[in-house]
Specification:
With 91 residues, the protein is mostly helical. 60% of the residues lie in helices and 0% in strands. The chain has 6 helices and no strands. The longest helix is centred in the C-terminal third of the chain and has 14 residues.
């Protein structure tokens, strides 16, 4: 991954960084990799605050969303990343 931290600091509020937990962050990345997500870097760059969601909550939300999208959530989200905002709806 080639992520520009300076860019992230400009894009996101300071409290996003304060609420990031390294272990939680990497657990979510591992989960997304396991789900064959091929746009993790884009998620980090555009939706870093998703990684502040507790891992278990994130996984539960993912499974709910994936069911709503008939097993195609990541495919649909790769085409329209605004769908990732649905993670916030039940958190």
């Amino acid at each position: 991954m080639d992520i520009n931290v300076s860019e992230l600091k400009e894009k996101f509020e300071k409290d996003v960084f304060e609420h990031l937990n390294k272990e939680n962050f990497f657990n979510i990345i591992k989960f997304l990799q396991k789900e064959d997500c091929d746009f993790i870097e884009d998620i980090i760059t555009n939706y870093l605050d998703l990684f502040t969601i507790d891992y278990e909550t994130f996984v539960n939300q993912y499974h709910r969303l994936n069911a709503n999208y008939h097993g195609q959530f990541l495919k649909k989200a790769s085409e329209n990343m605004n769908l990732l905002e649905e993670f916030y709806s039940a958190v």
